[in-house]
Amino acid sequence: MHKIQMVDLQRQYEQIKSEIDKGIEEVIKTSTFINGPAVKEFTENLTTYTGVKHVIPCANGTDALQIALMALGLKPGDEVITPSFTFIATVEVVALLGLTPVFVDVDKDTFTINTVSLEQAITDRTKAIIPVHLYGQCSNMDAILTVANKHNIAVIEDNAQSIGGSYINESGSRKTGTMGTVSCISFFPSKNLGAYGDAGVILTNDDTLAHTMQKICNHGSERRYYHEIVGVNSRLDSIQAAVLNVKLKYLDKYCDKRREVADFYNEAFSSNPHIITPYEPEYSHHVYHQYTMILEGVNRDEVHAELANIGIPSMIYYPVPCHEQEMFKELKDREYSLPNTEYLTARVLSLPIHTELTEQELVFITNGVSEVINKLTHR
C-alpha cells in the first residue's frame, strides 16, 4: 500500500502525465511565459465552465481577494465582515488595505457564515461581506445576498476551496463563485482544481469592476507605461495555465470522486458516537476540498497525534480562529463572542481526501480512526 497522503498529487499526475507534459512543453517551446495563449485559453474555458461574464487571471487566491477589495474602492476604516473560522488569507488582505475586519460566527453544522451573526454585525460603515465556502461547502447565498442587498453591501465570495461546487435553490443550480459581486478562487496545488504552483482568478459579472480589476492586476495600467490607478503585479503564468487547462477537463470527475470518498467515511463512522460527520444542507452540493469531522468526547489533539503514529495523516483546519490571532491583537476594536467558532476550533479534524484513494486505503484509514478513538475513550 502507498504511503497515505492528505492529497496525493504524484498519483494524480501519473494519470494525466502525457497531457500535462504536452501542455508545459508547448509553453516552453513557444516561450510565451507571460500572458501567453495558454492563459487566454484557460480563461475562456473557465468562463464557459462557470457561466460568468469575466474571468480575470492573477497570481494566487490571496491576491484575488486583495484585488477585489481594491477594485471596490473601499477606504481605510470601512468595515468588511468575514467569518473568523477561515484561513487567514480571507482576513489578512482586509487588514493589509487598512480596512477594518469584523468577525462573525459560523453555523456549527455547515462551518459557513451564520446569517444571524452577520446581520447583527452590520453598521453604517459596513462596505463588504466575504462569505467563505469552506472545505467545499457552499454558504447560504440566498440569505447572505438578501442581507447584502437590503443594506447595499458588496459580496465577495471566497471560493478558494470550493470550485466545482454548486448552490441549489428554487431557480436551479449555480456554480459557487458566480453569485456575489465578485468571487475569488485559489488554484493552490492541493485544491480540487490545483496548479503546480501558485495561481488564482477573480470572477465577476460586473463590466466596470472587471475592467478595474484587470488594470489593478497589471500595475494599474491597460496601456504599457501609462498607469491610471495604483495596482499590483499579479499574473497567472502560462505554465500554470497549461496545467489548469488540462485539469479543468477532469474537475467534475475529481469532485465526484471526493464525494465518493466522503460517502465511504460517512458510512464507516455513522454509528460512532464520538464522530459527527460533515453535514450537507439541501442548498449545497459539497465537493469536499476537505473531509472535516467533529470529534466529541475525545481529545482531538490526541487523536491527531495517535493517527500520525500509525501512518494516517490528518490535519486541523483551523486550530486558532482569526479573531484570536496575534496579528489582529492591535487591530481588534471590540470583544467577540463566537461560540460556534470556538467550539469547532477545539474539535475539527480533517482526514485524507483525494482522487487516488483506494478502497484498501480507505478501510485502513477508517479502521485506524475507529481504533484510536476507542483506545483513547477506554483507557
In short:
The chain is an alpha/beta fold and 379 residues long.
Strand order of the biggest β-sheet? 1-9-8-5-4-2-3
Q: What is the share of helical residues?
A: 25-40%
The low-pLDDT segments are: none
Strand content: 15-25%
DSSP summary: helix tally: 12
Structural class: alpha/beta
User: What is the chain-wise order of helices and strands?
Assistant: HHEHEHEHEHEEEEEHEEHHEEEHHEH
Our Rg estimate from Cα atoms comes to: 21 Å
Quaternary assembly: single chain
User: Cα distance, first to last residue?
Assistant: 30 Å
Note the overall shape.
Answer: globular
Name the average pLDDT: 96
Described by strand count, sense and barrel closure, the largest sheet is:
7 strands, mixed
Number of strands: 15
List keywords for this structure.
single chain, 379 residues, alpha/beta, seven-stranded mixed beta sheet, three-stranded antiparallel beta sheet, 12 helices, 16% strand, globular
Give a description of the structure.
This protein has 379 residues and is α/β, with parallel strands linked by helices. It is built from twelve helices and 15 strands. The chain has helices at 9-30, 37-50, 61-71, 89-96, 115-121, 141-151, 207-217, 238-248, 251-269, 300-309, 339-345, 359-377; strands at 54-58, 79-83, 100-104, 126-129, 154-158, 166-169, 172-175, 182-186, 200-204, 221-223, 226-227, 275-276, 284-285, 291-295, 348-351. The strands form four sheets. A seven-stranded mixed beta sheet has the order 1-9-8-5-4-2-3, with helices on both faces. Helix 3 (61-71) crosses helix 7 (207-217). The chain is globular, with a radius of gyration of 21 Å. The mean pLDDT is 96.
